[in-house]
Design goal:
Blueprint lengths: L8 H32 L5 H12 L5 H62 L6 E4 L4 E4 L2 E4 L2 H15 L6 H9 L8 H15 L2 H7 E4 L3 E4 L6 E3 L1
Helix pairs in contact: 1-3, 2-3, 4-5, 4-6, 5-6, 6-7
Keywords: DNA-binding, Membrane, Transmembrane, Transmembrane helix
Protein name: Helix-turn-helix domain-containing protein
InterPro entries: OmpR/PhoB-type_DNA-bd (IPR001867), Sig_transdc_resp-reg_C-effctor (IPR016032), WH-like_DNA-bd_sf (IPR036388)
Length: 233
């Protein structure tokens, strides 16, 4: 199997550009929306200006009329304070919305990059640096992982490893023949396929088992690793 190297920076480059463009677009849209919203709000001093104009232009002499203007002036001040608090609330909400949208965009890009990374790993296959088969311990050491196998699974894996060292692909019948010591013509293809299934079940980890033991259509089974990493003791 050819040595396939996958650089982690490959999916990051387009992802980084998407993040930068997306963040810029989000910030620009929210800034424009905030400016338009704030500009369309009424002037906080508009009410007070009208009251002041009414006081200047009107000839008010009675105490009741003056009291009414004082009440109107107090209402204008309260309106101005309320409008100022509205502006602050709108500003905080826009900042919060910007932060949430930027975070969502970053997480989506990271998730997409992770999915691409996993797809590349699945297509390339598992990268095995060492495969040590210990028949005495019924254990296989794959990189930094160890798998305790049954005797039957160990026999199947040993047969596949020896075939890989000889650059051979074995059919199910041939695997059964080597393990049982019989002629391949007397063995059933399904028996070897059953041994492969039990080996995968014993390995447990689906990605490891499916990528380590390859099924080549109309040919048979083989270990999808470089033969120079295989050791048998």
């Amino acid at each position: 199997m050819p040595d396939v190297s996958i650089s982690g920076s490959e999916p990051r480059r387009p992802g980084a550009r998407i993040v930068v463009v997306g963040i810029a677009a989000i910030v620009a849209i929210l800034i424009v929306a905030g400016v338009v919203l704030l500009l369309t709000l009424p002037d906080a001093n508009a009410f007070n200006a009208r009251v002041e104009r009414l006081f200047v232009e009107s000839d008010l002499t009675s105490g009741t009329e003056i009291k009414l203007l004082e009440i109107l002036a107090q209402s204008g001040t309260a309106f101005a304070d309320t409008l100022a608090s509205y502006r602050m609330v709108i500003f905080v909400l826009l900042v919060f919305a910007t932060a949430m949208m930027v975070a969502a965009l970053v997480f989506l890009v990271l998730l997409a990059g992770l999915n691409r990374r996993m797809a590349q790993v699945e297509r390339a296959g598992i990268q095995v640096n060492s495969l040590l088969i210990s028949r005495e311990e019924n254990t296989v050491y794959l990189n930094n992982m160890d798998f305790k196998l049954t005797a039957a699974a160990m026999e199947t894996l040993s047969v596949l490893a020896e075939a890989r060292l000889d650059d051979e692909v074995l059919s199910g019948a041939e695997i059964e023949a080597v393990v049982s010591g019989r002629d391949s013509s007397d063995c059933d293809e399904a028996a070897g396929a059953t041994r492969i299934k039990r080996l995968r079940d014993t390995l447990g980890n689906q990605m490891v088992s499916e990528l380590l033991v390859k099924n080549i259509a109309r040919r048979g089974y083989m270990l999808a690793i470089e033969k120079d990493v295989i050791r048998m003791v």
